Amino acid sequence: AGGDYLSTTASSDFEITGDFTVEMWINPSALTNYRRLMGYGVGAGWDAATGWCWNWTINVTTNKPEFHYLISNDLQNSLGVGNTAVVDGVWQHLAVTRSGNIFRYFYNGLLDFQVSDSTAMAVPSGTNTLGIGRFPGGPGTYDYEGYMDEIVVTKGEAKYTTNFTPAKSAFPTTNIVIVDDNGGEIGRAHV
After folding, report:
1. Of 58, 79, 24, whose CA–CA distance to 134 is shortest?
2. Which residue has the higher pLDDT, 76 or 26?
3. What are 158-180's pLDDT values in tens digits?
4. Is residue 61 within 8 Å of residue 31, measured between CB atoms?
5. CA distances from 9 to 48, 126, 133, 137, 148 (A)
6. Among 28-42, 102-116, 126-140, 156-170, the least confident range
7. Which of 59, 41, 47 has its CA nearest to residue 136?
8. Do residues 135 and 144 make contact, with C-beta atoms less than 8 angstroms apart?
9. What is the average pLDDT score of the chain?
10. Which of left, alpha, beta for 12 (phi over 0: left; psi -120 to 50: alpha)?
């Protein structure tokens, strides 16, 4: 809740350049115009002069989900903002997927936004970090406030391409386990 966040050291496990799924349950307590849910990259933004770049980020902009990704070390691409507003004080499921050139946002399992984009995703040079609840490797500007659960990053697969029913069972306690492509654990946090 109140300004807590999680960050990891650099790992290619979070570098996304092809098909993927990023999903999570969120229950925000203080959404304002712009909040960072999670992302992977260098520093706090996309300013090439200072070396700040993201491989990918999921934000809430004007209370709607938004996905950014890196095209080159000095150029970000925003796919657009979803159609459904995220609300404070309610658990809701968000998912972003890519299958080929099609990016999709899902809100509570329903397709909310879809766009075709064939631009290649790039990974910034430098020491990248995964940030959950704030800019990857950056300052506390735009920190997310609220609860998050069941955060999953899947590389190489768009788990959802049509409407689906999100799993509603929660872990008995909130544990964040970070695994590699082979299912091996590379990090854990209990919050």
Report:
1. 58
2. 26
3. 999 999 999 876 544 555 555 55
4. no
5. 21, 12, 15, 9, 20
6. 126-140
7. 41
8. no
9. 77
10. alpha
147 vs 156: CA distance, rounded Å: 27
Residue type, 118: S
CA separation for the pair 61, 58 (Å, rounded): 10
Strand arrangement, sheet containing 34-42: 6-7, 129-132, 34-42, 53-61, 64-72, 75-81
CB 131 within 8 A of CB 148: no
What is the SS3 assignment for the chain?
CCCCCEECCCCHHHCCCCCEEEEEEEEECCCCCEEEEEEEEECCCCCCCCCCEEEEEEEEECCEEEEEEEEECCEEEEEEECCCCCCCCCCEEEEEEEECCEEEEEECCEEEEEEECCCCCCCCCCCCEEEECCCCCCCCCCECCEEEEEEEEEECCCCCCCCCCCCCCCCCCCEEEEECCCCCEEEEEEC
